[in-house]
Prior knowledge:
four-stranded mixed sheet, alpha+beta, 13% strand, 340 residues, binds iron/sulfur cluster
Amino acid sequence: MTGAKRQMAMVMDLNKCLGCHTCSVACKTQWTKTQGREAMWWNTVNTMPGEGTPRGWESMGGGFHDAAAQPGEMPTTGGFGEAWEFNYDQVFSEGKGQEEHLQVVGDAPDWGPNWDEDEGAGDYPNSYHFYLPRLCNHCTHPACVAACPRKAIEKRESDGIVVINEERCNGYRFCMEACPYKKIYFNHAKQVSQKCIFCYPRLEQGVATACSRQCPGRVRFLGYADDEDGPIYKLVTQYKLAVPLHPEYGTQPNVFYVPPTGPMRLGEDGDVDESQPRIPDKYIEHLFGEAGLQALKNLEREKQIVQGGGKSEALDVLIAYKWEDMFGGFDRNPATIKWV
Ligand code: SF4
Ligand code: SF4
Ligand code: SF4
């Protein structure tokens, strides 16, 4: 399906993610502040293992197989989490700040983004969790494109970014059912589907995506997938340290992850137990397939090189000594541009 001449892509190193949500807020303040988008978070950061956003998205179906979009469930607004109203006036301007605490107005919510934040899994002292930032994967075989009867979703030829044409969108939401990553939202005010645009207006000016540029953990690498001098090619193709999430969905994502290693496991005597990892292999395999386990082996190979006194270009890329090296040439200062 692709048709794109080049493909923009992202790599996220899950070993560096702090779970700070700066990426989500950077996206929100840039793109989804307006009416109808109150509950939209094109970028989310969930604690894993966990239910994720929307709740239970991993078992909602969809995908791309046999050259066709596969049926899936439509996520609900409640599953994503509502944009709650808070009693700001009462606390901040009605003089009751000492008696009243900030709380949701109306019915108490029972779910929202990151409801299960930092819970994770496993038993003390070997409990574990890590953070998984997610956005639209700008897939090579986008199920959303295949599912839209209005041909309202396009995969851009120049850079492979998947965008929704709101003029053509009739709000049927077949795309929301088909996307196996459940990364499309419905704007109830405009009655159209909306999602991450990979910050294409910024990229077209040479500026990195907002979520990447603002990330304090230097987690989010960026660039063309075929740029042999760029970080994506090195981490995905050359050193095979970064892999797609749930490759079995069949859409061929262009967002890749360096899987998490987790801290060392502790034995009953409190000493380090190296016989097995803290994060179970079967969970890594569940998320990233066998390639995820191989990526962890490749990462270990690079660490051994450095521990043996050698030099690892792959680890140097991951460390990201200079932020400019993370973005494949998209390092222009946005303050130098007159935005229209
Ligand atoms: Fe479409 Fe979903 Fe892939 Fe994004 S992640 S391109 S919305 S199928
Ligand atoms: Fe939002 Fe841009 Fe990041 Fe997409 S690439 S999640 S639009 S900040
Ligand atoms: Fe924070 Fe970066 Fe992780 Fe987002 S990806 S939560 S900005 S560390």
